Queue: 3 jobs
Job 1
Amino acid sequence: MDWSAILLSLKLSSVVCGFLLLIGTPIAYWVTFSRWRWKFLVESVVALPIVLPPTVLGFYVLVGIGSQSPIGRAWAAWSGHGLAFTFEGLVIASFLYSLPFAVQPMTVAFSQVEHQLIEASSVLGASRLRTFIRIILPLSRNGVITATVLSFAHTMGEFGVVLMVGGNIPGVTRTVSIAIYDQVQSLDYAAANRTAWLLLLFSFAVLSVVYGLNRKSLAVWPLQR
Amino acid sequence: MKLSVDLQKRLSANFALDVKFSIPAGVTILFGASGSGKTTLLRCVAGLLRPDSGQIKIGDQILFDSDTRVDVPVRERKIGFLFQNLALFPHLSVAKNIEYGLDGCERTPAQQLTENILESFRISALRNHKPNEISGGERQRVALARALVTDPRVLMLDEPLYALDYPTQSQIIEDLRAWNAARDIPILYVTHSQREVFALGERVISLENGKILSQGTPQDVLEAPTHESLAQLAGFENFFDATVVSISNDSGTMLCRLNGATTEVEVPLSRVEVGSKIRIAIRAGDIIIAGEFPRALSARNIVPARIISLRREGTMVIAEIDAGRSFEVHLTPGACESLGLKPEQQVWLVIKTHSWRLVAARMVSVRQR
C-alpha cells in the first residue's frame, strides 16, 4: 500500500478544504446578496471547473504559476523555488478545481435563509458581519457541511489537474489517484485494487456519516421526505 | 419625541406611496386594506426600503433626506420593528433572541435587561425554549419583548396580533400600553381590524392606494367614513347609487331615489344639487325591521320591503331584504324569532336619516396595489 500517497492526498484535501471555506464563503456571500448586474459573469467563472476538462484547467494553471509568469516569479523570489510540480502548486490548482463544489452549496444555503430574519437582525442593530456569523451561517449549517464534504472528496479524487500541475513526484505530488494509475500501468492489479478499495470505502464512509447526520442535506440527492 | 414623515416611493407602474404626516408619542393606527401601502410605509421609515424622495425625522434627527442625501443605515436608526411573521431567529432560544439587540451593552446589564423584560411579559419560564417550541401568543410576546428591550425611539408593529385569539390579543395590547406609559414614544401600529383600532388607537391614519385618505380619532375616521373603501373596512355593508330628488335646507336633509328603483330615502344634507348622482351607505346593524307598519316613530324612513332570505351566522341573523334594491340587515336570533320572520314575508325597513352616510365613490379598487 502506498501510504505516502494516501497521506499526501489527505493533507492536500484538508489544506484545500480549509482555503475553500475561508475564501469560498465570502464568494458565496457575495454571489448570494450582490445586486450587481454582471454578477452572472462571476458565477460563470466560479462554475467553469464543472464543465472544463481537467487537462485544460491544469494546463492554464501550470502556465499561470510557471517560472515565466508573474505569480511564479513572485513566488520564486519569496520562497526560493518555483510553484510548478510542488505541493503548493497542487494546492492552488485543486483550490480552483474544487471552488464550485464549495461555493454552490453555500450559495444555495445562504439564499434559503428567510430574508426577514436578515432584516430583523439589522433592525436590531447588527452589522452585516454579525448578521452573517450569528444568523446566516448557523442557519446554513447543512450547506456548509455539504460544501466541506464535497470539496474534500472532490480534491481526494482528482486526477487530471494533479497530473498536469504536480506531475508524479513520490511524497510531494503523487496523490492516491495517481498512485492507482501508476500501479495499473505497472500491471500491479492487486496493489491497485487495495488502494482503490480503500478510497471507495473512505468515500462511502464520509458520505454515510454526512447523510446520517444531516438527513435533509442536499449534497447529491434531492430533498427527501 | 415626534416622528415626521414625508415620502414618495414608486413600487410599480400603478402603485406609488405618497404620504406626509407627523405623529406624537402614543399609538397611531395605520389603517387600510391590504395593498394600501401600510407595510411599504413602515419599511421606508425603518430603512429597509429607500424612498425615492422625501424626508424622515425623529425629533430633530434626520433619518432620511433625499435633498441632502442623508440615509441613516437601518442598524443605526434605533427603531423597534415587529414583523408580521415575527421573524424570530429559529436557532436561538427565547432569551438569546431577546438579547440579540443588546450587542452594544455590557454583558451584565444586558442580562439584567433581558431578565426584566422576560418578567414583565410573563415569559421567564420560556427562556430556554426555541421559538418553534412555544405557542403563537407566546411567540408574539417574545417578538414584542425583543423589539422593546433595545429601548427604541419609535416602535412600528406590522399587524402584530394577526391570527391570535381575542383574549390573547387584549392581553398583549395591555402589555404594550403599560410599557408605553413609561416610555411615551411614537408607535405606528398597522392593522386592518376595527377592533384593534378602537382598543388601541388614539389616532388613526387611513391609507388607500398609497395616499392618506383621512386621519383623526378612531371615531372621526371610522364612524364617519368619507370614502367607500374606508366605509367597507369600517363595516358598512350597504352601498347604493342614488339621485337627489329634493333638498330641504330647513331640516338639513335631502330626499334621494335609489337608482334602479322607486324607493326614496331621506339622508343628511350635503353640498349637492337636485339631480346630482350620489353614493350612500348604511350599516346592516343600523336598520330596523318592523313586522307591521310602525306608527308614531321618529325615524323618517319607513320603507315597505319583502324578505328574500334569512341566514344564521354565529350569534347573528343576516337577512337579505328587497326594498326596491337589495338590503343586508343584521338582527339577533331572538328578534328574528319573536317577529316570526320568514322568507317572502312583507316587512318595513326603518332607517334614521342620520344613519345614512354619504361616501365618495371609490377612488380605485381596494385590492389593487
Job 2
Amino acid sequence: MGANLKEVRGRIKSVKSTQQITRAMKMVSASKLRRAQQAITEMRPYADRLNEMLVHILSNSEGSGSSLFGEERSIRKALLVVVTSNRGLCGAFNTNVIKAAEATIQSKYAPLAESGDLTILTIGKKSFDYFKKRHMKCEKISDYTEIFSDLSFENVSQVSQLVMDEFKAGNFDSCHVCYGRFRNAAVQIPESVQFLPVEKMTHDDAKVSKHKDDYIFEPDQKTLLEQLVPSILQTTFFKYLLDTHASEHGARMTAMEAATENAEDMLKNLKIVYNKARQEAITKELSEIVGGAAALEG
Amino acid sequence: MNLIVLTPERKVFEGEITSVKIPGITGQFEVLRNHAPMVSALGEGPVRIIQKGGENKIFKIERGFIEVIRNEVALLVQGVEE
C-alpha cells in the first residue's frame, strides 16, 4: 500500500509540472497571437487602399487589367507553396494545412507530381520535414524556415518576388498557395488558393459609375498597372504568411488550453485515487492495532 | 487637404497638410490643394510633407503609389526610412 501511495504522489507531481508548462505555453501564445493579429490589422488599410487604387484605374479606362502575371499558359510545370509553422504542439494545425496541400496535389497537379514537374516550396519547418520525406521527386527552391522569426514585409517580398520572377521566366505556369487562414483564435481554415496566374481583373459596371473621375495617370495606365499588380501580389502573399503566423499561435493557444484542462481533470482523478489509498492504509493499520490489542486482552 | 501615409506594416502619417513633395517615377513633383484626381507610381527618393502648421516631415521611400482625389491624398509606400 505504501508503495502505491508513493507512486500516486509521483504521478500527481509530474502532471502538475506538465500543467505548468502547458499553462505557460498558452500565455506565451496568447501574447504572440495578439501581436500577430495586430500585424494583420495594420496591414489591412494598405491592402484595401491598394485594391481600391486598382479599381479606380480599371474603372477609368477601357479594357481589362491583364498583365504579365495574368497570362494563362498550358500547365506543364507548377509550383506549390506550402506555409506551415516551424514548431509543433499546436493541435492539428499543420496537419490540416498539409492535408489541404495533398488534396491540391491530387486534384490539380496529380500528373505533374508523377512526372516530377511539380515543385514544392515550403515555408515553415513542419511542411519542409513532411515533403522532404514523402516527395523525393519534388525539387525545392529553398526551405525558408527562418522567415517567421522576422516577419517583415521586406523579407516576405523576397520570397514572393522570387515566385513572380520564376513565373515570368516561364519556369512554372501555375502556382497555388496552401496556408492557414486566420478566422479567430479558435478557428483556422486551411486554404488552398491560386496565386498565379492572377485572375483577370475586369471592372464590373457597378463600380465604374461610382468611381468615375477624370484621373490623371502618371506615367501612363499600362506602366502603372505593371507596378501595381506586383505590389498587390506581394501584399497578398504577405497576408498568407501573417495569417498562418496568427493561426499557428491561435491553434497553439487552443491546444494548450485544452491540455491544461485535461491536466486539471487528471489531477482531480489522481487526488481521489491518492486519498482512497491513504484512507485504506489508515483503516488497515487501525484494524491491525485493534486486532493486536484484542489478542493481548484475550 | 488630408494625407494618409501607409506601409504594409503600419500607418506612418495621417493629418492635415498644405503640400507634399514626392518622387514620381518620371521625376519629382508636388501636390497642393485642389489637385486634379491622379494616380501615380513613385520611385526611390525623399518625401517632404508640409503640415498645416508649417511643420516639415521628411522621409525616404523605396517605391510606392500616390492617389489624389478631392483633396484626399493617399500615399502607399514601401521601404520607409525616417
Job 3
Amino acid sequence: MTLLASGPLIDWEWIGEHLDVIRAATVEHLQLTAIAVGIGFALSMALALLALQWRWSYPLLAGFCSVLYSIPSLALFGILVPITGLGTVPAVIALVGYTLLILLRNIVAGIEGVPAPVREAADGMGFEHWRRLARVDLPLALPAIIAGLRIATVTTIGLVTITAYVGLGGYGDLIREGLRRQSAPQASTLVILGTGLSVVMAVVFDLLFVGVEHLATPWARRPRLAPIEPMEPVPVAAIPAGGSLSDG
Amino acid sequence: MSDAAPAVADEADASPASGEPAPDVAIRLETLTKRYPGSAVPAVDHLDLTIPRGELVALVGPSGCGKTTTLKMINRLVEPTEGTVWIEGTDARTLPAHQLRRGIGYVIQQAGLFPHRTVADNIATVPKLLGWSRERVHERVDELAELLGLDADLLPRYPAALSGGQQQRVGVARALAADPPVLLMDEPYSAVDPIVRARLQDELVRLQRQVHKTIVLVTHDIDEAIKLADRIAILRAGGHLEQVGPPEELLRAPTSEFVADFLGDDRGIKRLSLITVDDVALREGPVVGMTDSPATARAVMADQGVDWVGVRDGDRLLGWVGAADLDGEPTLATAPRRPFRAVFTPGTTLKAALDGIVTSQTRVAVIEDDQRYLGMLTLDDLAEGVTEGSGEPLEAVGEDAP
C-alpha cells in the first residue's frame, strides 16, 4: 500500500482547522458505542435471567450468541444491508450482536459464582426470589458484569470504525475517507487520526471501567489480612497430655 | 416431659385438629417425610419429633441420616413430601415461605455472610426486610454486637476482614436480629478450628441462658451435641429417629446398638462431664477432729483401709496426715498436715473430679462449699455415680459430724 504517498504524515494544520469534524466524529462514535453496549447489555441481562430460570436454555442461548460473534463484521453488514438498508439500523444490530456473547457469559458466570452459603443464607433470611437477585446475586456478580462491559465496550469502540461502510460517521468515517482518497495530501492524517482516536477512546473507557469497578465494589478490594483472633490464655487442662499447643 | 409425640396414624394430609400443640411445645414435626425424585430411599422417613420451647435440641447422626434435610424442612428451604411442621401451633405451609423464614433465625456453616455488606448491614438484614425504622435497626445492631461480644469498630467492616470466629458470631447476631423465637443452626462450628470452636460453643451456652430461644442444632459431632443440647435426637441413615432424650439419658441408657455405637465406646467417660458432684452421694471419708488422738486416727485408717487421715476443725477440712507422721504426737492438731490437692465445689463435673482423684496422693476429691467440708469422693464413688444414674440429692455428710 502506498498510503503515505504525499504530504506530511500528520498534517497538524489541517487538524487544527477541522476540529469541528473531529468533534462530530467523536460524538457519533460515542453515541453508537453507547447505544450498542446499552442495548446489548439490556438484551444480555434478559437472556441471562432466562438462562438462570431455565437452565437448559443456556447452551442454546450461548451457542446462538457464539455464532453471531463468529460472523465476520463485513459479512454481517453484507447480510443485513439488503434487509435493513444502510444507516444506523444495520450498524446497531451488528454491534449489539457482538456484545451479546461476552455480556451473557459474564452475567451468568457472575451470578452463578455467588457462593452457595451466601445464597442459602439469603433464602433462609427470607429474601424473595427477585429481591435476592437485586440485593445479593447482582451486586455480588458486579465484578464479573463490569469486566464483561469493559471487554464489550472496548471491542465495540473498535468495531464502530467499520460501521462507516454502512454510511455512518465516527472515527471509521475518517479512516475510510483517508483510505479512499489516497492521493489527497491529508490521507495519512485522516487514517492515523481515526485509528489513533479510536485506540485512545478504547483505552480511556478501559480505565474508566476499572475505576467504576473499584468504586462499585468496595467489598472486593484486597482485604487487609484477617486479624488473628486474640488468644485467650489456654487452661492447662486443655493442653493434651504429652502434646504441645502447636500440633493441636 | 415425654419425648413421644402424640401418635398420628393418619399419613395423608394431617387434619388441622391434630396440630393442637401443647402450650410448652415450640416445634412439632409430624410424620415428616422427604423423598427426592429418583431416589428409592427417602431422605427423611416419617419423623415425629417434639421440640419444647426454650430448649436446645441437637439433631445428630452420620452423614446421609437426613438431619440437615429435616432442619431445612422447618424453614422450608426443603419442602416436605409428606407430613407437617408445626411452629408455635401454626402449620408452616400456611405462610408464604419468605414470611415464615423471617420469623426463624438461621445460622449456617461458614456463616454465609453477605460479602458485599458491612457487618452492621449483615446483622440488620432481617429487620430491614421487615421494614423496621432506621433508628430501631441501628439500636438493635448495637445491642446484638454487645450481646455477641463484637467490637463496635468491626461494624463498618466487610466480612472478608473478619476472622472465622468473628464471622460466625456475626452470623449468630444476624440470625437473632429480629428476635425470632426459633433458631436453626446447621453445623455452625464445623468450619472453625477446635480452639475457636470450643470458645464459640461456650458462648452459645452462655447466650442461650440469656435469650432462651428454641434452638434446633444440626451436628455430626456427638461431643458438641452432648456439650450444648438439652436434648439429643439421634437419626439413622434414611431419616429414622433412633432415640431422643437428654444427653445424660442417652449415654446412660441407649436403646439400640446403633445409638450405643454412635455415642462411642467411652460413654461412661462422656457421662462424667454431664454429671456434677452434687448428683452423687458423698462419703464422710477417713476424717478425725483436731483433738483426736493418734490411736483414734489409726482406728479410722484401719477401718477405711487407707494410710492417711483427714483433719477437720468444725466445718473446715484442714488437710491430711500420713500414718508415719502420727508417731509421738499427742493429738492430731500438732501432727504435720498436708493440704488436699483436689478440692472442688458441688457444681464441678465428675470428669474434673476424676482428674483430681487420679492426680492426688490421697486418691480422693474433697468437696467443699465456701470452705465448708461436704464430703469426699473416691474412684468407686464415681463409678457408682455413673452406673447408678443420677438424681441422688447431695447428702450433707458434714452436718452431723463432730
